[in-house]
Amino acid sequence: MNLRQLHYFYELAKFKHFAKAAKACHITQPTLSASITALEKSFGTELVVRGSQFVALTDAGQIVLRYAEKMLLDQAALKQELSVFSGPLIGSLRIGIVPQSSVDIMPIIKQFNQLHPNIAVTLLVTTNEKLIEQLTLHQIDIGLGFDENVTEANRRTFHFYPQIDNDMAILASQTLVSQLDMRLPNKAITLKDLQRLPLVLLSQNMQFRRYIDNAMAQTSLSFNVSLETDSLFHLVSAVKHSIGYAIVSSGIAKSAQQVFNLHYRPLQGIQSGHTVFITRKYSVSPAMREFVSLIDIS
Fold first, then answer.
1. Which of 50, 76, 107, 119 would you call most buried, defined as having the most Cβ atoms within 10 angstroms of its Cβ?
2. CB–CB of 290/89 below 8 Å?
3. Among 278, 297, 292, 272, which residue's Cα sits nearest to residue 100?
4. Average pLDDT over residues 282-297
5. Number of C-alpha atoms within 13 angstroms, CB side, residue 287?
6. In what order do the strands lie in the sheet with 274-280?
7. 168-272: which CATH architecture?
8. CATH number corresponding to 3-71
9. How much is the mean pLDDT over the chain?
10. Residue among 136, 114, 162, 160 nearest 290 (CA)
11. Mind listing the pLDDT tens digit for each residue in 194-230?
12. pLDDT confidence of 86, banded at 50, 70, 90?
């Protein structure tokens, strides 16, 4: 067994297709197949279920995959650690983010890029549950999500950086703004003000949406959800096209006002969790440490 074989195996598990994995590894398909076979012989067990093509990983393959991910990440972290002796940090940083966090992460990423231009940043939008899973499986390095539904085991495994109140706001276009008197600077909106108005909301599988649904369920009011989406871009676009009013985090509302010339007012009466940055306590790369240092001072 060697790291190259583990890398080929990891790519095969990711693509679930021999030809695609071989292309990602810049080798031929026969070379990839021979490497996987050699890896299986070194472990003395089959790792891949094969038919005429890839079918699935065996139970043993799933175990090897977990260790392969960690070993490959440790190798990348080692290269980053050693790169400081020959110049600036190099490598990658993968960040997972839920759509409705109250933190605008772009200024932090911009500052990080300026300090470390040779680190490629990947930003992945996901659900809160998936974010925790991806952190656990080393599929992302840093998460920006909510601190709810986190198990005690997760709390022992992860670091949580500052808990930020996730205030909510109602977002509207110029066309619809007058119906709620949103141009009054000190007027806060309540759920009662929203009854029977067209609403555009994130999909029900999103943690942020659950806060809204829980608050609505505690009232006897009638609400009209005209559009649901798991895309924050399409949510804001729907408001821009006056399809309805969106319930968003205050951070998203401020950004939408600046970028899309939309209007927002604070929304009262919905309890939500805190927005937090999350990292693993172990397998921390230099790029992760550098990004976290910007969180602390931002």
1. 119
2. yes
3. 272
4. 83
5. 29
6. 119-125, 91-97, 142-146, 274-280, 158-165
7. 3-Layer(aba) Sandwich (3.40)
8. 1.10.10.10
9. 86
10. 114
11. 988 999 999 998 888 988 999 999 998 989 999 999 8
12. low
Alpha helices in the chain (DSSP H): 3-15, 18-25, 29-43, 59-83, 106-115, 128-136, 152-157, 191-194, 207-217, 232-240, 250-260, 286-297
Strand 274-280 versus strand 142-146 pairing type: antiparallel
CB burial readout 23-56, b (16+ within 10 A) else e? ebbebeeeebbebbeebbeeeeeebbeeeeebee
- Return the amino acid letter for 241: H
Residues 159, 279 contacting (CB under 8 angstroms): yes
Residue 269: CB atoms within 10 Å:
16
Q: What is the DSSP string of 257-279?
A: HHHH--EEEEE-S----EEEEEE
Same fold, 88-164+275-297 and 168-272: yes
- Please, which residues have CB within 8 angstroms of residue 282's CB and are 6 or more apart in sequence? 157
Domain boundaries, the chain: 3-71, 88-164+275-297, 168-272
Amino acid identity for residue 54 in this structure: F
> What CATH fold (topology level) applies to the domain 88-164+275-297?
D-Maltodextrin-Binding Protein; domain 2 (3.40.190)
